[in-house]
Give the backbone structure.
Amino acid sequence: MTHGDDLEGELRRLFSDERLDLRPRGNAAAAVVAGARRVRRRRALTTATSGVLAAILLVGAVLYFGAPSGGGQQQVAAPPLEQSAGEPAYTYPPPPVPIGAPARGPLDEDTTGGPEQVPPASPVTRPATSAPPGTATTAPRMSGVPLSAITVLGPEGYGALRLGMSFDEAKATGQLAAADAPSAACTRYPLREGAAAVGSVLISPKTGIVGFDATGARTPESVHVGSTVEQLAAAYPDLVRTPDGFAAPAGRGATYQFTIDDHDQVSALRLAASTGC
């Protein structure tokens, strides 16, 4: 017999000893049943307590947050107006008050007994709005001034002076100032009327009048010194870029030359002949 067999036999002898047996007591079954009942009662009591506590908290919240504040009378909110799902909500502004009609209060009652006389509303002058990009519009004309009263430059000249007139012909119109004798070079001559519309006239000894320098005069398309580049482009779709700004055909071979400043406005306007000096 080996050592392993001896050990196994010894273990069997020890575990078969009656002193190691655990015999249940006579009331063991009753004790187990009583313990299970106690556990069930504790669970039921915990569940009931939690429900009562939740109900108390709910009632307290309703009493605290939902209590009415108007003399004990409960205020019931009116139901909202029915609105279709696709209909947008609108906020209606107050009714307009006519301009020029003063607001009347309860103390302004008419004591004459006749109908109330409301003065007519004053006309409202709306400011001119700029046209959106791409809209063909011309530069606005001076408000309240007829077109005939506005000095127009071009397309052939200004007043009685015409492009191509010789010095003698221009002098004969009586519009030139300080023009006793013709000059041997291209010379600018002022006008007798002043420089409000045209500052000077450029006359060449060979080809006659070759240019007009405008100050307050406007082109037939109502472009003038101070017009914006947008107004210029709307009046003349065939603009050509130049070193100082733009040029546009005026007709009969003449051109309008526009100098543009840093604010994108016309700072100088000239009607020039195609011949030059």
Summary: The beta strands are 157-158, 161-162, 187-189, 198-204, 208-214, 240-241, 245-251, 254-260, 266-272. Residues 147-272 form one domain. Confidence is low (pLDDT under 50) at residues 70-149. The chain is about 25% helix and 15% strand.
